[in-house]
Design goal:
mainly beta, 5-stranded antiparallel sheet, 4-stranded antiparallel sheet
């Protein structure tokens, strides 16, 4: 079996993308699973492809497990750990957001890894991001 996961795109506009992710674990967990796939996001009005995102806001709840977010790269760049049996709201827009500081092999994607997962544990994570075009 595998964890029951969902990914929902709420908004995929010219400048902003909002996506919601859920997991109901069967104890399997997730390891560096791509959640934000920038290549799958809508292109700009000028036809430019989205090459990355900057995280502006995070709404989240983790029950029974932690969830770690990383910018995908050869060596993934840690973003944040969302704590076990906690919920929260983080607004980074006041200073321009959390930009991708990954080094070599940077893909622009965001991956999730769960920690301490057991059967029945859950997370819900909603990300509001600003799209970047090179």
């Amino acid at each position: 079996m595998a964890d029951a996961v969902t990914s929902q795109t709420i908004v995929d506009g010219e400048k902003t993308v909002v996506q919601k992710f859920t997991n109901i674990s069967d104890g399997t967990g997730e390891s560096a699973v791509v959640k934000v796939d920038v290549s799958a996001l809508a292109a700009s009005q000028l036809g430019k492809t989205c090459t990355g995102v900057t995280i502006e806001k995070i709404w989240w709840q983790c029950i029974g497990m932690k969830t770690r977010l990383f910018f995908d790269a050869t060596s993934d760049a840690f973003i944040i750990e969302l704590g076990e049996n906690q919920s929260g709201y983080h607004d980074y827009s006041g200073f321009g957001g959390l930009s991708n500081n990954a080094g070599s092999g940077k893909t622009g994607d965001i991956v999730f890894t769960t920690v301490g997962h057991t059967s029945g544990d859950t997370y819900t994570v909603t990300l509001q991001m600003r799209k970047n075009y090179d």
